[in-house]
Amino acid sequence: MSDVFKTCPQCSSEYGYEVNETTYACPECGNEWNPNEIIDDDKLIVKDANGHLLNNGDTVIVVKDLPVKGAPKPLRAGTKVKNIRLTEGDHNISCKIDGFGAMALKSEYVKKV
Predict the structure, then answer these.
(1) pTM for the model
(2) Which among 7, 10, 47, 97 could disulfide-bond with 31, CB atoms 3.0 to 4.6 Å apart, if both were Cys?
(3) Taking phi first (over 0 means left), then psi (-120 to 50 degrees means alpha), and beta for anything else, what does residue 83 get?
(4) Dihedral angle computed from the Cα positions of residues 69, 74, 80 and 83, in that order, rounded to the nearest 10 degrees
(5) Which residues contact 110 (CB under 8 A, 6 or more apart)?
(6) For residue range 47-101, what is the model confidence (pLDDT) as tens digits?
(7) Is CATH 1.10.760 what the domain over 1-38 is classified as, yes or no?
């Protein structure tokens, strides 16, 4: 165990202590965290249909047939989408799909590969 204290990301207490090799705990608010996995508040947080955190550049699979305006056929479930970009708004994934071109998707209709 280390004698070094870490600042709690939740309450900013300076007395966070090491519980094990990867976890720290705060005696004031009870928060536990891994200092290597702290998410910045400024970073856009987008989750897929299963609740997994998505990042720019991830590959996802469409989980439901989705109608596409102006296209004769829907985007089929199981379609793999590579190199996504996260954006603000209702359709929070921007991507290019072979056979369809550039489009925006809702994260609730994809799962991370």
Answers:
(1) 0.62
(2) 10
(3) left
(4) 0
(5) 48, 49, 60, 61, 62, 63, 81, 93
(6) 999 999 999 999 999 999 999 988 899 999 999 999 999 998 899 999 999 889 9
(7) no
Query: What are the pLDDT digits (tens) for 17-49?
Result: 999 888 899 999 888 888 777 555 567 889 999
Rounded (5°) CA angle 110-111-113: 130
How does strand 80-81 pair with strand 93-97?
unpaired
Query: How is residue 108 written in tokens?
Result: 């609730």
User: Which of 81, 76, 49, 46 shows the shortest CA–CA distance to 64?
Assistant: 76
**What pLDDT does 42 receive?**
60
Domain 46-112 homologous superfamily, CATH: SH3 Domains (2.30.30.40)
Q: Where are the domains of the chain?
A: 1-38, 46-112
